[in-house]
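Justification of resources, computational component.

The compute hours requested in this renewal are based largely on the per-chain cost of generating structure records like the one below. Each record pairs the submitted sequence with a full C-alpha cell output. That output is archived, and it is also reused by downstream analysis tasks.
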Amino acid sequence: MVNADARGTVARSSLADEAYSVIRGWILTGRIPPGERVTVRPIADELGLSPTPIDVALVALARDGVLESRLHRGFFVPELSLNDMREIYEMREGLDSVAVRRAADAAEHEAIAADLAAYCDRQHERLAAGDLEGYRAEDLAFHQAVWRLSGNERLRRTGENLQDQMRLGNAISSRRPGRGDQSVDEHRAIVTAIAAGDADAAERAAREHIRLTARMFAEEIGEHAEGSRGRGKKRSSAAGR
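The structure output for this chain reads:
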C-alpha cells in the first residue's frame, strides 16, 4: 500500500519503488487494460510525483515483463497471445516439476507438505466464500511456496520473474465453472506425494496440474474469440438490413 500524506502524495522515500508498486497493481488488476499506452504525466499528476520516478518505474516494469517498450512509441500493457501463454506454461511445468521433486526428496518433506497443505485449505476457504480474487492470490502463493520450499534459490527467482505474466492465465482459467475446486484437488495430490516422499508421483501430479491449467486457458480464450466473431457477424447482418 502506498504511503501518502494528507494531500494524497506518495511519501518521498524510494519514490520509484512506490511508483512501481502502484502502476504494477493498476496493470495486474486491469485498471490499465492490455494494449493501453502508459504515459508519465497522468500518473505523475495522480501520485503527486515528478516525472523522474515514474520514468524509472516504467523502465523497471518493462524489464520485468509487466510493460512492453516500443521504440519511439513509449510503454504499453502487453497483450499476451495464446502462444505467449503456452510458453509461460511450458516454463511453469519445468519449474514446478523440479521444485516438487526436490521437496519430496528433502529430509523435511513431511514438514514441507504440511506447509503446502495450509495453502490448499485457504484456497478451499476462499472458494467456499465466493472470494475468487482471494482464491487466485492463494493459488499463486501456493506455487511461490513450492518454489521457495524446494530450496533452489535460482528456481525461486525464475518463478517469481514469471509471476506477473502468470496472473493473466490464472485469472482466465479460474473463471471456468468448477475449475477452482479441481485445481485445489490437483494441489492436494502434489502435497500428498511430497508428504509420502514420492518424487515421481509429485512430478506427475505437478505436470498434470500445469497441463490442465494451460488447457483450460486455451479453451477459455478460444471460446472468447469465437464469441467475439459471432457478435461481429450479428453486427454485420444488422448493418446489412
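Residues 42 and 51 are 10 Å apart (CA to CA). The chain has two domains: 15-76, 82-229.
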